[in-house]
Design goal:
single chain, alpha/beta, Rossmann fold, five-stranded parallel beta sheet, 11% strand
């Protein structure tokens, strides 16, 4: 089965059933995984150029949603997967603590302002799902409001897909031990101290609560229009390869071709070479 088929959330989903050490869809190990990612990166670059070239001819776009616990590898996805394509055709946004202005609006207000336009790949490094994850765990909204948000997200994403944006949702799933090791590395290495946030330890203390919140959010918002993919992420190389394949698969599904010239090619060719002819 393809990456998408193996990683897509189905009926009866339980996060605990996903082994963070697994590498579904790829059994050849890290070395071959790196080669596969390099090859896929070349394809992604071409597919993204094709999407961007059609900006004036095709209203469609792609939105990649990345979610995961702290240290799950979202930054690595941005560098090694999204970084393989031309940055002029990509819009990356990260949604942190809402500002007072954002809090004065519905939780989706700030999200809708950052959606990718035609011909673009949008990337949300943390997204509207923060409002049903940390919002639930930290009780930043009452239960009735959290419940409303699940339905609002489903409606929002269905409208988004209907308007021509493909939504690729990826949850990077790491184990608690793997997170400990990654946080320890940030403390051990001076070049990684800038990445360490003492607040991450407070969130880590609520690990089980977050796992439950993720499971519920994924179960409630994985739809035919915008399915969730849960990616075992203890192996960084595998998570990057899996996301790259899911993104490439979305771009391939657009079935685009190069847009036709909006001018007479032969006329312009003659004009070009005439301009190179020396004057008498």
């Amino acid at each position: 089965m393809s990456f998408a088929e193996q990683l897509r959330v189905g009926a009866g989903f339980r996060l605990a059933d996903v082994d963070p050490d697994a590498t579904p869809g790829f059994a050849d190990g890290k070395k071959q995984g790196a080669k596969a990612l390099a090859k896929l990166g070349t394809e992604l670059d071409g597919l993204q150029e094709l999407l961007f070239a059609n900006t004036e001819h095709d209203p469609r776009s792609v939105l990649l949603v990345l979610q995961g616990m702290d240290t799950s590898g979202k930054g690595g996805i941005l560098r090694h997967v999204v970084g393989a394509v031309d940055p002029q055709g990509v819009r990356i946004r990260s949604f942190k603590k809402p500002t007072p202005e954002e809090l004065a609006h519905d939780f989706l207000w700030r999200i809708e302002r950052e959606l990718p336009g035609p011909g673009l790949i949008g990337v949300f490094d943390r997204s509207h799902y923060e409002d049903v994850l940390i919002g639930r765990v930290r009780e930043l909204a009452d239960p009735a409001e959290i419940e409303r948000r699940y339905g609002a997200i489903v409606d929002f994403e269905e409208r988004l897909v209907a308007s021509g944006t493909l939504v690729v949702k990826c949850m990077l799933h790491i184990s608690r031990d793997e997170q400990r090791d990654r946080l320890a590395e940030r403390l051990d290495r001076p070049d990684k101290h800038w990445k360490f946030n003492p607040g991450d330890l407070a969130e880590r203390a609520l690990w089980e609560d977050y796992q439950a919140a993720y499971e519920l959010a994924i179960e409630r918002t994985s739809t035919a229009a915008a399915p969730w993919h849960v990616i075992p992420a203890n192996h960084k190389w595998y998570a990057r390869l899996a996301v790259a394949e899911l993104l490439a698969n979305a771009l391939r599904s657009l079935g685009q071709s190069w847009p036709p010239a909006d001018f007479d090619v032969e006329e312009q060719r003659r004009a070009l070479f005439a301009s190179l002819t020396p004057r008498a």
